[in-house]
Amino acid sequence: MIRKYILLAFLPLCLWACTEDEIQPYHGEQYLRFQPLEDSEQENIAVSFNNYPTDDEIVVKIGLELIGIPFEKDTPYKVTVVNDEVKEGDIPNALPENYRLPESPVFKAGMTEDVLEVVLVKTDNLKEDVKLRLRLESNEYFAGSMPLFDQMEIVFNNVISAPLWWKGDVIKLFLGTYSRKKYVDFVTFSGISDFGALSTAEKRQAALEFKYYVAANNIMDKDDKTGEEFPMVIPVD
Hints:
The protein is an alpha+beta fold. Helices cover 24% and strands 25% of the residues. It has two domains: 31-157, Sandwich (Immunoglobulin-like), CATH 2.60.40.1740; 169-231, no CATH class. It has a four-stranded antiparallel β-sheet, with no helix packed on it. A four-stranded mixed β-sheet has the order 2-10-9-5, with no helix packed on it. The longest helix has 22 residues, at 2-23. The protein is elongated, with a radius of gyration of 28 Å.
C-alpha cells in the first residue's frame, strides 16, 4: 500500500516534466560548411581566364550547407581570406585586386543549402597560378564549421594557351589550327567557351556559322609569334 502512494506521488512530477519538454523550443547550434567538390579527388577549384577570353571577371559559385535547423530570416555568416606563408615552389596568395567577396554574405531563410559567389578579376599579374583560400568563421549566429569542410581554395591564372579541347578532330574537322585571335573571335561570335563539351552535330553547326561569319566579314587571322596577318581558315564543310 505504501508503494502505491509513493508511485502516485511521483506521477504529477513526471507529467510536469513531460509537459515542460514538449513546450521547450529547440536551441541547437547551427554549423556551416563548404560542400565537397563533385570530383572527390579534386583538391581545389581551378579556373583559367584563358578559357574565358572575352571576360575580365569570372563569378565562381561555391556551395554551402547548413547543419542544424534552417533560420526563419536571412542570416549573416562570416567568411575570411587565409593568406598562407609562401615558401619556394608554393603557389602564391592572390592579391586583393584579383578577387571580390560579398560585403555582407547571408544564408537564405528556410534553406539548408546556399551559394557563396566569389568574383575573380583579371589583371596583368596573373601570369602564373595564384590561390585564394577561404575559411568559414563562427559568429553570433553560427557556432562555426566542421573540420575538413571549413576551408575552400580557388587556384586561378591567366596563362595564355590553347584550350585543352582544341586538338584532334577540332583541328581537322571543325576550327582548324589554333591561334589566339581565332579563339577570341570564335568565343566573341558564338559565346561558346567550351567547344569540347558540345556534341558532334553542335560542333559542326557552331563551326559552320563561324565560318560564314568569317567569310562575310573578311576576318583575318594572326600568327601568335610574328603578328603576321593572313586569311582565317575554318575547315568545316
